[in-house]
Amino acid sequence: MRRLPVYILIQTSGAMHGEPIESIKVGLESMVASLRQDPFALESVHISLITFNRIAEQILPLTELESLQLPEIILPESGGTHLGEALRFLCERVDQEIQLTTAEIKGDWMPLLFIMTNGKPSDNQLYMQMIPEVKRRHFGSIIACAAGSKADTAKLKELTDNVVSLDTTDSATFRQFFKWVSASVSMGNRSIGATAELQLPPPPPEVHTVI
Amino acid sequence: MDITKYLSNIELPAADEIQLKAFLASKGMEMNDNILKLWDEFIITENANAGVETHGRASLQNPASLPESQPEPADIAQNTDPITPKAPFLSVEENDGITEVKPPDTEAMTINANINPDNAPKEDLKEKVQNEELALLIKNKFITLPNGKVGQPYNFVFSTEKIGLTDIEDFWFTGLDQIGLTFDTVTDAITGTPTVAGEQSIQLFLKRKGWTEGKPVFERKLTLTVNPDPRSLWQDKLSDKSDPYWKPDSASQFLKVESTGLLLKTERKDVVAASRRGRSHAHEGIFRDDDFGMDYDKNTNWYIITVADGAGSCKASRKGSQIACQTVVNVCKTQLESQHKDFEHLIKELSKDRSDVNRKKMGDALYGIVGTAVFKAYKNIEEEATKSGRAVKDFSTTLIVSICKKFKFGWFVGAFWVGDGGIGIYNKDTKFLKVLGESDGGEFAGQTRFLTMPEITQPAELYRRLRFDIVDEFTALILMTDGITDPKFETDANLLKIEKWDELWKDLSKEVEFKDNNEKSAEQLLKWLDFWSPGNHDDRTIAILF
Which residues of A touch B309 (CB under 8 A)? Predict the structure, then answer.
């Protein structure tokens, strides 16, 4: 069975305390619940959760939707937004976990990547270095979500064309966003050209696509 | 003053609670001592006020947790200086169900150090504090139950030790029976076959070691996720008939080739094909992107068979596959009508001498027929794209074509293949297998090459994809899209394994009667296409010459 790997990077710095992280949790829960209603997703989607502050940690290894249980997300007291480090860690995981097609082994679908951050990497140099590395991993699509009114989208635009910004970090907004994420994930199971990128469904009104 | 009361009655935000938990863990002993000290003082005050029945200290809603050996009012009265009657001066405040009693004038009381008769209340207090801590621990514990699946047996042995709750004597669950599960108190196993999908609310009850009647029973709400059976989730929505590129959601065709000879009849192979919209498409009410085509020319005795798979990610690919199939059948037919004599002559030469020279001539001739047809298919798609104002890419499709004819010396089979899927000549008796080309796969699933990619119709590339051979009588020539090869062969390596073809043929033969002139085979084949394979729900198309 072919897997559709979905990597979700979540910033867990001190800035995310309170409503933002609680909203993300609620959003994740409703995303998983709605994906469970999609028969194709139920048989193919594998989710990995990576949190990052000063360090990056895979709090959920690539797990099939059927047996998936969302882990606890614990926030440190403080800690920066080391998005560069998170991407470096991500590439490491992807290299280990993604199965490419060979004559003998059936490969995975192109993985999808979702990043939830305020878009202000504190390790900017590493972040810039990692951008081409991430692109080399051939994600079916990369969606960066700049959360919060103070979020910065400029840096994220360097990584992907799909940057959406959420002005508010309440659970309703995140639920909308993750609903859209699930829709995008459902689009991942499509035959595509050897070089083509995945086409995304249009985002909901609460989610602003950054042009 | 009463810290324990504070801890158990105040609803804390989750984050604070985690911190508090950590704090308690590190400062537990120190706090216990402090609380005990405070309590000692408090007990004295309380004893001085004996006779007051309710007290806010019992926060676990459990009368038994009150000190059992609380001194009788009479005893206190004997040991304390006479004080004014208490009741009229007491102020009792009801607040959120907690009854708080304030002594009227604690200053006025004279405390006799001897009133604390033994340390029994201290023991009780210790237990109470432990209970409070356990309650908090249970409340914050990350407890999960493995997910279940509707219709599939569930079996999970729950262990409190494993989740770090060591002080538990007994536990049980409620809420399981609504979803078809039961808890076995002997084996501690949750078993059964879930009947309801969703996030199910379950209660876990726990008793501490040394529990006796009246002591607290801890409760914790848990969520048990029951996955639905994917089969029950698929919907079958009709595709939009008003769409200009609409085509039926499924199609099948049987091409009967009559036997020859009046007295001594020779059976001739028939062609059957079927194409079914994948569940993933039916679920969304979108179109079947696959297509097929076939022809048998009574004058030249040439068979033409083709299948195509429109790219799921492209908007007009169903039209692309249709144009491709129709075009190659038409062009091959016309080409063979005009060229068959020369072409067949080359085949005869090749059958006698398979020299490189003859092979080259054969390849060139096949290029002239099938190559032209493939190129024309591309051109027709391009024309449709221009006409409809779309990009050629929107019509992306794979394509497998075969032309074949039976001669006295054997079967000639020529083929062209771009994209995934597969084509092979199979003989179940001699275990002969010839796969006519190579599948185009990318690094990732679903990636392939399409006829519509500019490089494919370059002469050298097109030529490279041609195959031909002269083979002995066979069981079947099979052309199929990836909707079949993915579930039945899985990998490119398997496509070359005779065992896999044996399995496929065995599987097919269960539902399709491969006998001469069986018109029903089209319907049977279409039915067979509905087979179940987890994760494989693409359009499926298969064409068989048998």
Answer: 191
